[in-house]
Amino acid sequence: MTAKVEIYTWTYCPFCPRAKALLKKKGVEFTEYSIDGDEDARAKMAERANGRRSVPQIFINDQHIGGFDDISALDKQGKLDELLQ
């Protein structure tokens, strides 16, 4: 079974391409929600992300992971692959 991965992004976010590149490197397919200028979408993301409004915000199997620093830290700790299975 492959994990359900969702990522909220913004066009001019420098960390969004890094997060997507990490997921692609892992061979993971993901659903991307580009929330550029869409305050309703950003509000929905913030609701799911415990109030966090920065991007990217990443979810794996509906569990909030956080942003690029968070997913990168999980990868360095060897815990990301387990979540992605």
From TrEMBL:
Pfam families: Glutaredoxin (PF00462)
Superkingdom: Bacteria
Gene3D superfamilies, alphabetized: Glutaredoxin
Annotated SUPFAM superfamilies: Thioredoxin-like
Protein's GO biological process: cell redox homeostasis; cellular response to oxidative stress
This protein's UniProt keywords: Cytoplasm, Disulfide bond, Electron transport, Redox-active center, Transport
MF terms (GO), sorted A to Z: glutathione disulfide oxidoreductase activity
Record-linked InterPro entries: GLR_AS, Glutaredoxin, Glutaredoxin_subgr, GRX_bact, Thioredoxin-like_sf
GO cellular component entries: cytoplasm
Boundaries of every Glutaredoxin domain copy: 5-65
Recorded family membership: Belongs to the glutaredoxin family.
Function description: Has a glutathione-disulfide oxidoreductase activity in the presence of NADPH and glutathione reductase. Reduces low molecular weight disulfides and proteins.
Protein name, UniProt field: Glutaredoxin
Protein species of origin: Planktothrix tepida PCC 9214
